[in-house]
Amino acid sequence: MRYAVYFTPEKSDPLTIAAQNWLGRDAFSGEAIPASDHNRLPARDLWHHTAEPRRYGFHATLVAPFHLSPNVSEQDLLRSIAAFASTCRPFHIPRLEVKRLGNFYALTPAEPCQSLDSLAWSAVDHFNGLRAPLSEGEIQRRSSVGLSLRQFNYLVRYGYPYVRDEFRFHMTLTGSVSDAPDGIEAALTDHFTPIITAPVCVDSITLFVEPERGAPFTVHSMHRFETVEAGRLS
Predict the structure, then answer these.
(1) How far apart are CA 220 and CA 28, in angstroms?
(2) pTM across the whole model
(3) Overall domain count for the chain
(4) Is residue 217 over pLDDT 90?
(5) Is 107 part of any domain?
(6) Which residues, including other chains, have CB under 8 Å from residue 179's CB and lie 6 or more apart?
(7) What is the pLDDT of residue 63?
(8) Per-residue b/e over 198-229, b at no fewer than 16 CB within 10 Å?
(9) Is residue 85 part of a domain?
C-alpha cells in the first residue's frame, strides 16, 4: 500500500469533471469513463496518451507516493493529515493554463502563487517523518533519469527529487507526447479553456491510496483547511 498527499478539487467541481472526462477515470469512485473524440484527436489516441495520468487520477502532487514507516499506522497518518489541514487556510489560484512541460502537458498556474509553494514546502516537511525511507534500489532507479545534485539530495532526504525549490505545481493531463498527434494541444485547449478561466479554490488536501504496486490511485479522504470563521468559533 502506498499513500500520496495531493490537491484535487471537489468531486462535483467543473474542473474535476472536465479532467475526469479527459483522463477517462473518476479517482473518487474508481470508475472508468469512456473516451470521446476531441476536436482533431480521436478517442483511441486520447486514451493512449492519457494512460499514465489516468492511473494516478487528476491531481497536483504535494507529497509524492510513499510507503508508511513500519512503526506508523494508517490511523497515525490520518491523524497527522487532519492536524496538518487544521493549520492551513484556504486560498485561490487566480487562473490555470494548459502548458507543455518537457514531454507532457499539464495545467499550471498562469502566474506565480506563493501560497501554493508554501503549502507544498510545509506538507513535505510535515509528512516526511511518516514515510519509509527509499531502498538503495529505489534510489538508484529514480536517480537514473539525470537528476541534479540538489535533486538527488532531495530524493534521498524526502523520497522525491522535485520538492522545495524544485517544486512546480502542475496537474498532469498526458503522458509522453513525443509521438503524439498534432491535434493534442488544440484538443486540450478546447476542452479546458472554458473551465480554467475561473479561480481555483484550494481549501483542502486529499489522501490518495495505491492498494498494490501498479494499481490505480483512488481518493481515500479529503481534509479541509481551517476557515477564518471556524477559527473564530473554536
Answers:
(1) 8
(2) 0.92
(3) 1
(4) yes
(5) yes
(6) none
(7) 98
(8) eebebbbbbbbbbeeeeebbbbbebbebeeee
(9) yes
